[in-house]
Design brief:
The chain is an alpha+beta fold. About 45% of the residues lie in helices and about 20% in strands. The protein is built from eleven helices and twelve strands. A hairpin with a 7-residue loop joins β4 and β5. Bound molecules: adenosine-5'-diphosphate.
Amino acid sequence: RYRLLAEHASDVIARVTADGRVRYVSPAIAALLGIDPVVVVGSRLQTFIHPADRDRVGARLASPGEGGAISFRMSQMDGGHVWVEASTHGLGGDDGDVVAIIRDVTRRKAAEDALAAKTIDLERSNAELEQFAYVASHDLREPLRMVANYLQLIDRKLGDGKDEDLTDFLGFAIDGAKRMDRLILDLLEFSRVGRNRPEFEPVDLAEVLYAAAQPFRDKIADGGGRLELPEAAPAVNGDRQELARLFQNLIGNAVKYVPPDRAPEVVVSVAVEPDGVVVSVADNGIGIAADHRERVFQIFQRLHSRDKYEGTGVGLAICRKIVDLHGGRIWIEANGNEGSVFRVALPSAEAQSTN
Ligand code: ADP
């Protein structure tokens, strides 16, 4: 019955002496190497192993119980190689024989290698892109400043001698240069997220949220609005400064994207959920249509013209980058019939320390 089991298993089952001679091998060896089992029995196992892997396999046969499964290459009849994974067990008899169960892992190995190569490629192109964004935004500012400065000089030099058209044209040109500078600065900030990142540390979310809301308190109070912050919140592992910037962007938007005749109401809350700590920033603003809730996280994507709401469209892209670096998730939901809720799920510090 054991022979029947061995003969019908798709893995190769072999019995080998401690010095590597094959006493038995199951028929699956024919499919693996294209060699008749009769030829293999009595031969040295090493003959069928890639020369570079022979020593490792030999060492394993000498102490079969050690170290879990072992991967190596076997030589096929047609000159090719297959990657296999083998588990080995000493039979416990005086002769020191070893049973090896050998599985073909060529396809898995190829997929793993391809994945590893792709990951390296991706990391490289990502680093290049970041470097490009950084250098481009850094170096573009200098000539732009020159354009803006000389436009202002021309404006001053012409003084009152300009007609209405020329005044307008110069005004537009100076405004355009300033706006471009703002865009470049934001792009620079975007490319800086995650650079020279300090070690993550447990960060008290309540403190971060309090600090992030600080710059908007006056504006909310002046408009007769309301700001609600959680009194206590769990800690998350992260970069305090970047988390503060994340929530400052979200609270800033919650205050900004409100119709002019409405008092802003911003409610920030924290809940502990199975997939981490979820921070919600809810507003009573103009809301975001379901179709646009992913798009707004792309860089330079805006849903409104500048004459209605000022901005560059970089804030939420920075938010997503920060959340990604923290291993979290950010998404938007509707806030009842009015406004939006931005939710940020972050891995809790506790969950991470027990991992
Ligand atoms: P910016 O505010 O500079 O335009 P963001 O990346 O912060 O850039 O936001 C992108 C776009 O998403 C905004 O232009 C706006 O249309 C929309 N948006 C962001 N936050 C809100 C919000 N709380 N309510 C409604 N729309 C929002």
